[in-house]
Amino acid sequence: MKILGIDTSSRYCNLSIIEDEDIMIEYSINGLIKKHSSILIPAIKEILKNINMEIQDIDGIAVTLGPGSFTGLRIGVGTVKGLSYAASIPITGVITLDVLAHNVAKMPYLICPVLDARKGEAYFALYRGGEQLCKIIDYQCESIEELLERLKNFQEKIIFLGEGMSKYQSILKEKISSRAIFIHPSLSIIKASNVAFMGLEKIKKGKIENVYSISPFYLRKSEAEIALEKKNKSV
Fold it and tell me: I need a surface site. Which of 39, 48, 83, 182 has the fewest CB within 10 A?
């Protein structure tokens, strides 16, 4: 099966096409140069052209649902819904923290992907790596202090990765330096090929999303929702 993997959850726009166990193409561009809304569709056309394929040749699409950039996630999910509807392609969604954990899944340590959620908070989850990746703390949006409090229950080595490391690595080093392992930045970026491989497994198992109901996984309320709630309370 040929699967298109798409990730727009961070400042990077990541795309990949795989066929079964092979990566046919992988593409990544920093969204600080151009916005995802202007990058994504031309990039999909470009990678298809580079491997002499049409969108109709794709057997499934996998997209990151979040958590991550609210705007980026809306663009990614909206684009995938449009492609699925227009070309009758099955779609599925994967969680960004799961994709990051898969970067180092075979390492026999605890694995903690961390993304900056702003407002002094982080998105994170905790997994145990090795023969089979196992999630032991579900997806959270909390302060780094709350994360550290949760980690007090574990005395093993912990691999930290994700874009949140640029902000939180120093405090993690200070508080749990003896147990913390920090991965090279190249493994802290979501790989669209991993999105595609995880999507392939879900599609094979029949875990296909409804094109009308698939939506981003924000993990917390957006600024617009918070503002609306405040406005309604004041009325």
Answer: 182
